[in-house]
Design goal:
Elements (H helix, E strand, L loop, with lengths): L6 E13 L4 E7 L10 E4 L10 E13 L2 H16 L13
Antiparallel strand pairs: 1-2, 1-4, 3-4
Length: 98
C-alpha cells in the first residue's frame, strides 16, 4: 500500500442488531479476523436489517473494507481527537439543571 493508494478487501462477517429495552446496538464481527484501522471504511453488503422491538437479529453477511492510504491514516490519527470532541457537550454556567 502506497502513500496515496487504497486497497479493497472482502471479508465474511456476522452482523448483530439489537432492539431491546436494555440495549439498542448494531455490531459487526469479522469472521476471518480482519482488523479495521483508523481511516478505513466498512460497507456491509445486503439489505438493511430491521429488528422488531424486543428482539436480537443475527445474520451472516459480506463486508467490503476500503483500506485508507498511508496519508489518510496519518490525517485521521492527527485530527481524530478533534472530531471526538465535537461529540462532547460542555456547560460552564452555574445554573445547570438536568
Amino acid at each position: 500500500m502506497g502513500l496515496f493508494t487504497r486497497e479493497i478487501e472482502k471479508a465474511p462477517c456476522t452482523v448483530e442488531v439489537s432492539h431491546c429495552f436494555e440495549s439498542l446496538h448494531a455490531h459487526v464481527r469479522f469472521n476471518n479476523g480482519a482488523v479495521v484501522y483508523p481511516g478505513d471504511e466498512v460497507l456491509v453488503e445486503g439489505p438493511e436489517i430491521m429488528a422488531p422491538f424486543g428482539e436480537i437479529v443475527t445474520e451472516d453477511r459480506t463486508a467490503t473494507i476500503v483500506r485508507a492510504s498511508k496519508l489518510e491514516q496519518l490525517w485521521t490519527r492527527l485530527t481524530g481527537d478533534f472530531e471526538v470532541m465535537e461529540l462532547c457537550e460542555f456547560s460552564f454556567s452555574e445554573e445547570v439543571t438536568l
